[in-house]
Every structure is written in structure tokens, then in C-alpha cells.
């Protein structure tokens, strides 16, 4: 993955506009967060292969970035995005890595289901 | 370490075997004992992507699969089973299905020793669900026919509630092999090994003890 280049990510987001896409959205601070630091409240969520279409999408901020997809009855939102990749299957992979390189957030968009 | 007929190791994530029990595995392999490692998931949801990151959420499963095979090779495990569950979801699977899966492994392999996590004392929900399924499967076997069940615990309260581990293996004779197994899980351990490198060089007693002593609690059936 490479550090976010706003124009390239925005272009990719626009390419999926009004198409039926599969979305992976995830946030995590790790299963060991509370074990390593008892005062830390561990939380996380992911949804894999949510099928949806969006009418507009934008990535913004000064880095780490925020991304929002406007869907018919709501929104998909992620913050803390630092890296992106358009992989060999044409999928847009957005991720936020923390200061140690660990994944903290991911938002991925594909025209075919993720494995 | 006693010579076993067959050792069956059951953990949910690639690298679970490396930290706590790889010295024990290598020691059994050195004695000529067949070792089977059944690994439930590919750790698909891991947060570590290498440092600097060389994996992403979608490439991680294939990378960890290769790392798992490399680690098994380093340890001399010639029977590696990848059971096809998904990271973080083991606890949501049907409990009977999990129990039956463990029972079928035990029936097929007839191990004299089973190693897994101690349910209630192993921190990660996948560890808990895996250990609990293994305990249920062994419990179903008539007491006289049961394999030994030696479990790994590392929650903060484990010693307080379980007492001291009844088995501590000094694996310093195979510590190099253990480090090779840990290193094989590069995406997950690169960062940790970097932090540990200086301590290893200085022969920091705490770090050496962490590597050289593998602790197990024999499961007490009620």
C-alpha cells in the first residue's frame, strides 16, 4: 500500500459510483488491547461483503484522511485513513495504520465479493 | 520431557504455536514423535502487517498461510492441518460442530498428548472457544482412555486462579529453532522481534525466561 494520494483515491471512489459494490469496513484496536493495558477499553467492528451502491463518495482531510460514501438511506464512514492501493483485481483498498504500522481501520470497495 | 506416542497441537491462529509451545514441539520432534498441528484460522484479521507494512487486509491470509507452513517446516512438523475457519469468528460457530471436529482429530490420530489453550484463561475469544471445544472433546472420552491434556494459559489471573503451572519445560536446547519459528511469522512478529533484539543481545533474564520456559497446566476435569 502507498500513502494516500487524494486525487487517485477520489478517482477510484468515483469509478464505483452508482454501481453495485461489495464493501469491507473494519475498525479495530486489537484483541489484546485490554490485556496489555487494563485501563484501555477494547472495541472493534467489521462488516465483510456488505452489498450496496452509493451516489457520491469523497475522501478528505489533511491526513490521516476521512472517507464517506453516501448511500440511499445513510452513510458509510471511516476515519484515520493513511494508505491506499488499487489491487490487481481493481479493488480499492483503504487502510489506516497506527504509529507502529498496525492496522486500525480499513475501508475496501470491490465489484466482486471479497474472499 | 516424556516420550509421547503422538502429539496433537490445536490452536486458532498461525503464530499461536510459535510463542508458547514451539520449543516443546521441537523437542518432541527431536525425540522422533509425530506432531500434528491443527490450526483453525489463517489469522485473516490480524492487525500486524509487517513494519513497515508489506501486507494488507486482502493479501494477509495468503501471506500468513505461507508463514504458517514455514514455521511448521522450521519446527519439523510434517502434519499441518488448516481447518478453514475465519479469524475472530470461532466463538460464533456451532459448539457441537467444533467439538465433533476435535473428536474426529483425536479419534483419527490417537494422540497421547493434546496441547491447546486453557478455556477461561487464554485472553483471545478464538483461544477460549478453541480450548473449550478441545476440553469438551477430551471430556467425552472415558477417563482411563483420555490423552493427557496440557494447556496454555496467560490471562492476568491465571496463576492466581489455576495455581502455578504443573509443567514447565526448559526448552533452551532448542531455543534457536523456536526463534526461527517466531521469525517465520514475519508479518506478525517483525515489530516485536525488533523491540526484543537488544534484550536478547544483552541476555536480559526476563526475555530469556520468556523464551526458554514453556508453561502448561494439566486440565483438571471436575
UniProtKB/TrEMBL annotation, chain A:
It holds the Pfam family DUF1806. InterPro entries: DUF1806, YojF_sf. This is DUF1806 family protein. It comes from Mesobacillus subterraneus. The lineage of its organism: Bacteria, Bacillati, Bacillota, Bacilli, Bacillales.
Automatic annotation (TrEMBL), chain B:
One of its GO terms (molecular function) is hydrolase activity, acting on carbon-nitrogen (but not peptide) bonds, in linear amides. Gene3D superfamilies: LmbE-like. Its cofactor is Zn(2+). This is Bacillithiol biosynthesis deacetylase BshB2. It comes from the Bacteria. The gene is bshB2. NCBIfam families: thiol_BshB2. PANTHER family: N-ACETYL-ALPHA-D-GLUCOSAMINYL L-MALATE DEACETYLASE 2-RELATED, N-ACETYLGLUCOSAMINYL-PHOSPHATIDYLINOSITOL DE-N-ACETYLASE-RELATED.
Amino acid at each position: 500500500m502507498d500513502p494516500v494520494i487524494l486525487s487517485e483515491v477520489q478517482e477510484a471512489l468515483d469509478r464505483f459510483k452508482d454501481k453495485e459494490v461489495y464493501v469491507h469496513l473494519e475498525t479495530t484496536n486489537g484483541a489484546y488491547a485490554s490485556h496489555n493495558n487494563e485501563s484501555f477499553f477494547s472495541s472493534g467492528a467489521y462488516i465483510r461483503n456488505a452489498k450496496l451502491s452509493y451516489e457520491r463518495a469523497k475522501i478528505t482531510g489533511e491526513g490521516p484522511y476521512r472517507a464517506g460514501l453516501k448511500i440511499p438511506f445513510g452513510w458509510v464512514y471511516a476515519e484515520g485513513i493513511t494508505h491506499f492501493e488499487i489491487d490487481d483485481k481493481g479493488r480499492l483498498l483503504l487502510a489506516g495504520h497506527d504509529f507502529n504500522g498496525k492496522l486500525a481501520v480499513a475501508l475496501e470497495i470491490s465489484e466482486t465479493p471479497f474472499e | 520431557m516424556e516420550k509421547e506416542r503422538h502429539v496433537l497441537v490445536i490452536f486458532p491462529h498461525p503464530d499461536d504455536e510459535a510463542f508458547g509451545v514451539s520449543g516443546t514441539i521441537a523437542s518432541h520432534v527431536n525425540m522422533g514423535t509425530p506432531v500434528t498441528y491443527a490450526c483453525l484460522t489463517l489469522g485473516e484479521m490480524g492487525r500486524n502487517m509487517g513494519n513497515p507494512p508489506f501486507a494488507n487486509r486482502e493479501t494477509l491470509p495468503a501471506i500468513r498461510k505461507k508463514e504458517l507452513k514455514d514455521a511448521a517446516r522450521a519446527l519439523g512438523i510434517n502434519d499441518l492441518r488448516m481447518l478453514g475457519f475465519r479469524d475472530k469468528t470461532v466463538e460464533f460457530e456451532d459448539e457441537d460442530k467444533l467439538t465433533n471436529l476435535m473428536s474426529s482429530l483425536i479419534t483419527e490420530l490417537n494422540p497421547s498428548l493434546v496441547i491447546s489453550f486453557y478455556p477461561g484463561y487464554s485472553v483471545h475469544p478464538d483461544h477460549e472457544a478453541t480450548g473449550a471445544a478441545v476440553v469438551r472433546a477430551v471430556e467425552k472420552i472415558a477417563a482411563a482412555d483420555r490423552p493427557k491434556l496440557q494447556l496454555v494459559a496467560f490471562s492476568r489471573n491465571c496463576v492466581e486462579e489455576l495455581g502455578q503451572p504443573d509443567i514447565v519445560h526448559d526448552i533452551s536446547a532448542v531455543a534457536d529453532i523456536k526463534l526461527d519459528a517466531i521469525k517465520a511469522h514475519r508479518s506478525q512478529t517483525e515489530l516485536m522481534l525488533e523491540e526484543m533484539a537488544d534484550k536478547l543481545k544483552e541476555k536480559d533474564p526476563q526475555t530469556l525466561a520468556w523464551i526458554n520456559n514453556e508453561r502448561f497446566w494439566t486440565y483438571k476435569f471436575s
